[in-house]
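Example for tutorial group B:
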């Protein structure tokens, strides 16, 4: 088995394989950069042909330094970046913009492949207007519908309609919605999202530390 643990720097993360048969590789990947995603997809396709499991856990939280630029960066990374990785492997040999990249990795998934998108308790819809809650929960929402919502959130055009002021929370609510939409579009695959709880990372420590009895 080959496990790819990517990062923007491509540095050795020091993971210890659970088995001597497991190979660990640490390539560069910036999920906010379509060219980076496409290059990684090309490498995977050439070296292995398919993928069994894709875990999208990259993300940023810039809410402590709020600005329109940071809102855009947060949505581009946490929401659109995840969307791009999900689509990057589907369009080998095609020219596409971010809105068309949502199924990039899906064609390289094995017949019983799985995508896991890491979400957060911050994705809770409490605090949104009833209208926005209903739109997020729409069982027929398409990726195009979701992108229209996120464009409005990014531009602030729906600020009077009950959006949360935390870009991180909005990005994770969008991650949940895109996961549901991708799952509906690909019933033969297992596509879900989850919250891992508190993790001992720079982002996790922004929220403080849990009691010592909890594991990391």
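The residue assignment follows.
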């Amino acid at each position: 088995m080959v496990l790819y643990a990517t990062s923007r720097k491509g540095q050795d993360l020091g993971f210890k394989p659970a088995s001597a048969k497991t190979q660990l590789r640490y390539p560069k990947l910036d999920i906010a950069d379509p060219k980076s995603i496409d290059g990684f997809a090309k490498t995977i396709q050439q070296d292995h042909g398919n993928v069994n499991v894709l875990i999208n856990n990259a993300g940023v939280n810039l809410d402590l330094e709020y600005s329109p630029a940071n809102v855009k960066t947060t949505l581009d990374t946490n929401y659109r970046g995840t969307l791009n990785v999900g689509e990057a492997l589907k369009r080998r040999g095609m020219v596409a913009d971010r809105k068309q990249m949502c199924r990039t990795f899906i064609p390289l998934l094995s017949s019983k492949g799985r995508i896991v998108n890491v979400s957060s308790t911050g994705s809770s819809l409490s605090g949104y207007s009833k209208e926005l809650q209903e739109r997020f929960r729409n069982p027929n929402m398409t990726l195009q519908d979701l992108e229209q919502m996120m464009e409005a959130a990014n531009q602030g055009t729906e600020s009077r309609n009950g959006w949360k002021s935390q870009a991180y929370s909005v990005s994770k609510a969008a991650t949940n919605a895109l996961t549901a939409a991708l799952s509906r579009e690909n019933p033969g695959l297992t596509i879900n999202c989850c919250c891992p709880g508190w993790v001992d990372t720079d982002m996790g420590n922004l929220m403080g530390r849990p009691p010592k009895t909890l594991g990391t």
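The helical segments are 34-47, 68-88, 130-136, 143-155, 167-185, 202-205. Compare this with the pattern of hydrophobic and polar residues in the output above.
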